[in-house]
TrEMBL record:
Name of this protein: SpoIIE family protein phosphatase
SMART domains: PP2C_SIG (SM00331)
Every PPM-type phosphatase domain range: 183-369
Gene3D superfamilies with a match to the protein in the record: Histidine kinase-like ATPase, C-terminal domain (3.30.565.10), PPM-type phosphatase domain (3.60.40.10)
Region (Disordered): 150-176
InterPro entries: HATPase_C_sf, HATPase_dom, PPM-type-like_dom_sf, PPM-type_phosphatase-like_dom, Ptase_RsbX
Organism in which the protein naturally occurs: Streptomyces pyxinae
Amino acid sequence: MGAVNGTWTTEAEDVTWLRVDVALASAARREAAALGRRIGMSEARVSDLELAVTEAATNLRQHARDGAIALRLVRSRTQVAVEFLALDNGPGIDDLTGALTDGVSTAGTLGVGLGAIARLADGFDIHSLPGRGTALTARFAASAGAVGEGSDAGERGGIGDAAVPAPRTGGLTRPISGERVCGDTWAAREYALPDARDGGAGRPGDGVVVMMCDGLGHGPMAARVGERARQVFREDTASEPEKVLRALHSGLRGTRGAAVAVARFDPATRRVRLCGAGNVSAFVLTATTRHALLSMPGIVGHQLPALRTFEAELPPGAVLVLHSDGLSDRWVPHDYPGLLTREPTLIAGQLLWQAGIRRDDAGVVVVKAGP
């Protein structure tokens, strides 16, 4: 795992999915506690994490027609955390502000409510579509930050409040039904843009190169392709998408191959450049528009076409989304009011859950432009 812009990131590794069933709350609590102890959380902080995960899981059991908890570790340059996402196709929440008031809890839950989850977490965000479902994400750091253990936690609890800054890049993968590993993967790394103020040397973290990879097929063999693609991507130092894609093509020789798209995200120039081969979708989104960036036909690792790099503007508040064909490409931004203002991990989770296809691996990665 690598850090993007000094904030939390993960690269589709070690995601545990727990679907709604009678044992969801206890299974999610055990898995979360094990992850917390693995990264050295204090027992008091583990208890906070268990409480939040149990409340979210119980809400799913009570209200969702279908839902799941996804648990994983995320890292920054200086910190590691347990992150969970709660995703559902339930009735949604009409009044998020009211639901986030401390002490407001739905019938049958622990009574701590969404507001307490937000207050306990080091990072929290939520988005709800009335009549369609809710997505929630929360991060709990290994060591106490501005929350928990003698902090001013009581002053927090709003949408988007965070003691730890939200990531600018985030993604999520989900295996096809019946498999435990996923052939889709993503990764991101920083690069420096030249800057005359420091002699043209550039400042680390000015830009992001991001990859979405869909290993052909499903199961362990496809997952190995994704693991190899992540390794090659991490070791490569190029920032131009075509150069990165050619390095991936060489690195994936001897595997079953993959569809891959690589994008270079330049916040200073507000431009994105993308080069891809195979069926990976890429869009620059605003609240009302969706501009597609094309990939060429081909299989990375087997048959690379004559490559082309496509470029688009990043308007203020724009979002870059790359996803595999495990998501339907029929979704449009105006079907998700307010989603693009949320943090990237939450955007990825909501899109995957609402537009994902259960008969295929699914993966999505999101990069946000600044204001």
